User: Fold this.
Amino acid sequence: MATEAGARAAGEAAAALNPLEQFEIHRLLPIRIGNVDLSFTNSSLWMFIAIGVVALFLLGGGARLVPTRWQSAKEIIYEMMSSMTRDMLGEKGRPFFPFVFTLFMFILTANMLGLIPYSFTVTSHIIVTFAMALFVFVLATVVGFVKHGLGYLRLFSPSGVHWVMKIILVPIEIISYFTRPISLSVRLFANMMAGHTMLKVFAGFVIGLGLIGGWAPLAMMVALTGLEVLVAALQAYVFAMLTVIYLNDAINMDH
Amino acid sequence: MEFEAAKLIGAGLAAIGIGGAGVGIGTIFGNYLAGALRNPAAAASQRGMLFIGFALTEATGLFALLVAFMILFKG
Amino acid sequence: MCPRGDTGKDDLEALGERIRVSRRRHEPATAGRGGSASPLGVAFRIMTELVVAVMAAVLAGWGLDSYFGTWPWMLLLFTPLGMAAGVLNVLRAARALDDADFGQDAAGDTARHGNNAAWTKDDEKGR
Assistant:
């Protein structure tokens, strides 16, 4: 009895400073169509804000021959994505550059906006990252079949391998092909969720240790926030780069 | 065993997997430094690969941290 | 080589007149496509193809789920199918726009130079 009461009190204390509370979805504008809940949530709000920020960033800044600083920033990001696409895919990959660029800008902005206090990190929900990763996976598969027909299935049997090895290798390749959307989505989701949870946990330590001992966790939080900024940009770049790699597998089958 | 105690023990066990991320990231940066000291001119061209390798390795370690957090706060 | 002064201007005007005449002769072949749309309109059309395909498939999957009670399997089945259909629509629309834009002029060029951005072997030969 006493242990149950103690456990309940501990549970309540943990719930008061719950680091996972920041990931809860709140309905800002409840909309129900029939049986479907299509509410405008805080997640949707921050997605719209991310799109707005990206649009403002890309539309502003001017387009002069001698670039302003804003225009230089835009050109640097454009050049980074363009060279990555061109190096890996060649000229055949030009049609996919807008998609990769949009993906990169959206994920980068959504990740960065999550670092603002009292905001909501859109990409810290698995369904958001899974939707994007599933689309990339389906895109690469469809493109592969459109370009190579059924020869796309040769992706699963690498060349120059003895046929006995192929009996073991082909199922492994097939399984690893289908884990692509999972790994792509969970990578981004885990980085975002773990990063923000760690920030909240250390914030709890700062408050818990009070005025005397709270300086150590605070210094750790400053370092962690810097790391989170790096991780936000890096994970966006890795997502875009893996998209380009999967498209390269589909378009130029170098296996 | 009480549910709270089991949760805490489970989270602690799951967090052991993050050590793998530490080993992996150290390996990547160590190899990059060793290569950069041997061929400083080529080091700058591989800096992009360095960060990509770091991100992918860190992600795998973070999978374990994610499991630990989920056990601790969602059970 | 070219004469300067008034005679030069007359030559230029004659050249301009010949260009205008030949352009008018070539235009009727491509005028049928109804003029070129603004890039924003084109972008919205292609985006609509993709989004509508995905939304329709999700709605179909969800509807079948609520009818047969097989949540969430129908939705999981139909969502990738909708994405695939959307991607195919986008590829088809983009290829149609490419043909409308480049039309006959590109056919001669690709036959001579080959098409670097070709997608299938047909495209490489310039069809």
User: Anything to note?
Assistant: Chain B is about 85% helix and 0% strand. Helices of chain B lie at 3-14, 18-38, 40-43, 47-74. Residues 47-74 of chain B form the longest helix (28 residues).
